[in-house]
Structures are given as structure tokens and as C-alpha cells.
Write a structure and sequence with these properties.
The complex is a heterodimer of chains A (about 180) and B (about 160). Chain A is α/β, with parallel strands linked by helices and about 180 residues long. Chain A contains 8 helices and 5 strands. Helix content of chain B is about 70%, strand content about 0%. Classes of the chains: A alpha/beta (about 180), B mainly alpha (about 160).
Chain lengths: ~180, ~160
């Protein structure tokens, strides 16, 4: 091959590479755009989609996301439980290892919490169930004071936890009483 | 013979000299493709749970994590399928490298900050490797993808 032929061939190779890079860039753009539509459908229709309503409330009012027992067991097997019910209810029975914390006895409960909490474990707050709002208030305050996002509320509260315990360990060995 | 042809023929010669290179070159993309698809399917089963895993990294807020959870799951599925396609393989390969670098950065940042994250790499099922193992796996996958002899098939276009 002559020198000019070789130079032409080199130029052809360079333009081929530029063309290939452009094709790759176009393909990459397409691959990045392609997931948008199915992602939008997933966000809208998936039965286990992120809870957009809760997120919207969380942003507007500082509310905390609530999780059910299944979600907690699956995603946060090692949570720190906070019992936001009245002291008498807590003394009667509570989740093993739970810390009692409510607005009226905040300082005492909060110091116990800081002793037990390692700064990493997710925190789940529960109250008496049936639409009680104490757990939301406690969780919101905790999130602010600990500057920690992974503070959740147990959906259904204490009755939800008791029900699961009764289902898993039989009617007699259900909700643990007096564990401290 | 163009520059590209010469590079390709030189690469094939190298592949012949070191058999495992050819094998890895042929199967590297398949391995990463299968992993992407597996990870995507697991995450798509529970996008809400994956969103909370992302939030656990404390790098973005709850809304960002929720949006990312649905987009990333589908992006991984698209990349996994594209790695099997001759036309889109090269783009998918470089996007995969970018995505793995982002994941590695997030994992490294969590390790440095002392955050005990559940990797979230394969959904909410818990990590069987831990953060260090997941980081190592991501680095290995990046190396598999960036090697010049990786993801090549005879006669297929590649860069």
C-alpha cells in the first residue's frame, strides 16, 4: 500500500471511530430515557410502590412514614422500639426491649433511648393503635432531636404487634408482658 | 485495513494467547447482564422497600430515594437486556460502568461515615456480602467491563 493510501485508510479509520462514538452516545441516551415510562407506571400502579401520599405529608407537615409489621420484619430486623403509650399500658405489656417515651416524660425516656441507641439502628415508634397520633408526634420529635431520618411509625400500633405475636407463637405466648 | 480493524485483530490475537481473556471477554457482559436483570427483578418486586434502602445511605432525601428506586430498577433491567444486544452492548457496557461507580461511591461513603447500610443491591432481602463485599463485587464488575477485551463477540461492533 502506498503512503497516501495508508494515510487515507488512517483517516477513514478515525472517522469510523468518531461515527461509532456518536452511535454509542445515541444508544446510551436511549438506554437512559427508556426506563422513564415504565418507572412512572411502577411509581403509579405498583402495589408496593413508594408511599407518595405519606411522602407528601412528610414533606408538608414533617409527618413520619408508617410501616406495617411485614415491612419492618423484612427491612429492619433489628429496630429499636419506642413505646409512646401511657406509662400504665407500657408497664402492663410492651415489645421486648422497647423504651417508653412520651411527651409527658420526654427527658427520662430520651436519656434511656440515647443510652441504648447506637446511632444506626432504625427506630420504630408505636402507640395504642386505632388512629392514635402519639406515635407520629413522638417520631417527628425524635427525628428532629436525633437528626436521624430512619424513624418510622408502626402501622396499627400495639394491637398490630400483639396480633403478629399471637399468630406466630400461639394464642398463649403472644404479646410479651413486662419485659424491660 | 483501518485502525479499528488492526486493533480488533490485535485484540483477537491477544485473546488467543491467553484463553481466559477470550472466555471473560465473551462471558463478562453475560455475567453482568444476568446480575443486572436479577437485581432489577428483585427490586421491582418491592420498590417501596428499595426506596427505604436508598434512604438509609443518607445521601438523598425520601423523595429522591423514592424516585430513584423506581428509575434505577428499570434502568438496571434495561441495561441487563442491552448487554445481550449487539447494537446496544457498547453503550450498556459504559453506562453499567458509570452506574457501578456510583454504587461503589455510595457504598464507600457509607463505610467511611460508619453507616451500617443494608447494601440494597439486590432489593430488601438483606445483603449476604456486607458493605465491603458489595464494594469489592462492584469493583470486580467494573474491571470486567472496562477491560478492552471484555464484552466482545466475533463480528460484533465494539469500542
Amino acid at each position: 500500500m502506498t503512503r497516501s493510501g495508508l494515510a487515507n485508510s488512517e483517516m477513514g479509520g478515525a472517522s469510523e471511530m468518531v461515527g461509532r462514538r456518536r452511535r454509542t452516545l445515541r444508544a446510551a441516551t436511549l438506554l437512559l430515557v427508556l426506563p422513564v415510562v415504565p418507572a412512572a407506571l411502577t411509581a403509579w400502579l405498583h402495589p408496593r410502590r413508594p408511599d407518595w401520599t405519606a411522602l407528601a405529608v412528610q414533606v408538608q407537615e414533617g409527618a413520619v412514614v408508617d410501616l406495617d409489621m411485614d415491612q419492618i420484619g423484612r427491612e429492619f430486623p433489628n429496630v429499636l422500639w419506642i413505646d409512646a403509650r401511657a406509662r400504665t399500658d407500657f408497664d402492663e405489656a410492651h415489645v421486648p426491649g422497647a423504651v417508653h417515651l412520651d411527651e409527658s416524660t420526654w427527658d427520662a425516656g430520651f436519656s434511656t433511648l440515647t443510652e441504648l441507641w447506637d446511632g444506626q439502628r432504625a427506630i420504630v415508634v408505636y402507640c395504642g393503635g386505632g388512629g392514635c397520633l402519639t406515635s407520629q408526634a413522638v417520631a417527628r420529635r425524635l427525628r428532629g432531636e436525633l437528626d436521624f431520618n430512619q424513624v418510622y411509625v408502626l402501622r396499627g400500633g400495639w394491637p398490630a404487634w400483639s396480633t403478629v405475636q399471637m399468630e406466630t407463637s400461639g394464642a398463649g405466648g403472644g404479646a410479651s408482658g413486662g419485659a424491660r | 485495513m483501518t485502525v479499528g480493524d488492526r486493533k480488533r485483530s490485535s485484540s483477537r490475537a491477544t485473546d488467543k494467547g491467553v484463553p481466559w481473556r477470550g472466555l471473560l471477554g465473551r462471558w463478562g457482559c453475560v455475567l453482568v447482564g444476568v446480575l443486572w436483570i436479577w437485581a432489577a427483578v428483585v427490586k421491582l418486586a418491592d420498590p417501596g422497600g428499595f426506596a427505604r434502602q436508598i434512604e438509609g445511605y443518607r445521601l438523598i432525601g425520601a423523595w429522591g430515594a423514592a424516585l430513584l428506586s423506581v428509575y434505577l430498577s428499570w434502568l438496571e433491567l434495561v441495561l441487563g437486556c442491552a448487554l445481550f444486544s449487539v447494537t446496544y452492548r457498547d453503550a450498556a457496557r459504559w453506562l453499567s460502568v458509570g452506574l457501578l461507580m456510583v454504587f461503589s461511591g455510595a457504598l464507600a461513603s457509607a463505610i467511611v461515615r460508619g453507616i451500617d447500610v443494608n447494601c440494597g443491591c439486590f432489593g430488601t432481602g438483606g445483603s449476604f456480602m456486607g458493605a465491603y463485599g458489595a464494594l469489592l463485587r462492584d469493583v470486580v464488575l467494573i474491571l470486567v467491563l472496562v477491560r478492552p477485551w471484555s464484552c466482545r463477540a466475533e463480528g460484533a461492533p465494539h469500542g
